[in-house]
Sequence to fold (452 residues):
Amino acid sequence: MNLIDRYVHEVGRHIPRRKRGDILEELRSLLVDTLEDHFGEDPSESQIEQLLKEFGRPRDVAASYYPQSQYLVGPTLYPLFRMVAGIVVAAVLGAQVIAWGVGIFIAGETFSVLEMISSLVNSVPNSLGWVLITFIILQYFDAKPYLEEESWDPKKLPEIIPGEEIKRGETIVGLVFGMLFLALVTFFPQWIGFVTTPGGKFYPNPVILDNLLLIRISLAAGVGLNLFMLWRNRLDLTTRLARIGLDLYQVFVLGLLVIGHNRWLAARSSGGLLDGLEAIEALAEGGWELVGMHAFRWAFVVALIVTIIDILASIYRLVRSQLKRDFSVRDAVVRIE
Amino acid sequence: MENTQSEQYQKLTQELRRGVLVLAALSQLKEEKYGYALISSLAERGLDIEQGTLYPLLRRLEDQGLLESEWNVEGSRPRRYYVLSETGRNILQDLTEDWSQLTGVMEVLLKDGGK
Fold:
């Protein structure tokens, strides 16, 4: 019977301790009854083996008695886990923002994107880990939460707006970077520029400093639009038109920046798009500023081209979605008739 | 990977049997029986059940108040005996009526084939 003991013990390992005793007693009784019925009172080792194989893997047997034991956080606890995890992450992010605000504006600490990212990388998984550990313990003791279910009303189902789902991930990334850049141009515009060598002389970009207000408006509008899109969660006529409007404004701002750089470079006889290469050759004679401004101009030219392509693509999608909607409305009308 | 026809059949027939298992088990527990005796009783009448399915089911029905159980240590070894509770008896009666109605409806449905 040694094999039976080992089998029952192994099943028990996958069942919570306080549920174990009764289930294992019953399982042993069933095994012995079955053995006796199939092979008589004195079964051989190989007959026991055969029976245990028929019964199945200990883990599967335990799962059939106690399905919850297969989860770190089971289906009963999962909705509560998700809710608590969401609240905790939101609270941690909120606390971080407040801590940064206090650090920068009250304690006068320096602003560092790297430090911000590294503290987020630490705090979010850390707090989520504690939530998870708590729920694993609750799961182990088979805690059953009481969640009052809201009554369900079909009238509250969201309206179907013709359009496409937005790409949430992309929008959130855009929002985060938009906010970071906005913070940068609002609080530390003098930091936008270039250095000659690490720790060397820093040159702020004069063209950016001249156009700060327009850049801030552009970034703030981008953040606002991304928030609006997350709220609407659909690409419909309003969001598409708003996106095109913002892109047009950004083309205007980028155009001004490119023109500003052109003027600045032309005043130093380095206005051509490829003059940057000559400037690099002249580095030894202190051409760093020229190289930096050429790099900025190239970046803005690329951004300008990308934005123009984005506008054209948005217009194409807008027209296509409107045509599709017209067709589907017409189809619906025909069907009703 | 696509299931073969026989795998699909196996799955569907398993689901079908799972559906009737509660009624089958309740029907045999008007008098108290221990698990293996119940499995044998069902098998003798043509309903084979995997052991892994029956025991958790018995526990669930007990938790729901349809069955009562107690350990009997009088025989050669301790065994847990299950029997219908008062609630279980009433529910079995209702379920039996539902079942008769359902089999009647199914017979009609399967015969006319939707014509």
About this structure: Chain A is about 70% helix and 5% strand. Chain A has three domains: 2-70, 78-146, 164-336. The first helix of chain A runs from residue 2 to 13. Strands of chain A lie at 164-165, 193-195, 202-204, 234-235.
